[in-house]
Amino acid sequence: MGLAVLKSSVSFTLHIRCVNCLRESIKALEVPLVDDAPLDPDELMESAYLDGVRYHCQQCQGTAGQIFGMSGGVR
Predict the structure, then answer these.
(1) Across residues 42-55, what is the average pLDDT?
(2) Residue 4 forms part of a structural domain
(3) How far apart are CA 18 and CA 64, in angstroms?
(4) What is the rounded CA–CA span in Å between residue 20 and residue 14?
(5) How far, CA to CA in Å, does 39 sit from each of 22, 67, 72?
(6) Predicted TM-score (pTM) of this structure
(7) How far is CA 20 from the centre of its chain?
(8) Is residue 6 part of a domain?
(9) Count of structural domains, the chain
(10) Which has more pLDDT, 47 or 6?
C-alpha cells in the first residue's frame, strides 16, 4: 500500500519588469491551498492575493514593478 502526498500549496512564477530601470526578473510565489485559492494564472490575477506580494528591484532598488507574464498553477 502506497502513501499519497497531498500538496499544500500552488506554485506560480511571476515575470516582473521594474517600472524604473525596465529590468526583468522572476519571483516564485507559493499560494496556500485553501478554499477559494487561485488554481491558475487567470484566477490569481483576478484574486486579491497579489495585493500582498511585495517587489524590490535588485538593480535599482525600485519598489514598483509590472507583471508581464505568469506561469504555474494546477493543470
Answers:
(1) 91
(2) no
(3) 6
(4) 18
(5) 29, 18, 9
(6) 0.80
(7) 21
(8) no
(9) 1
(10) 47
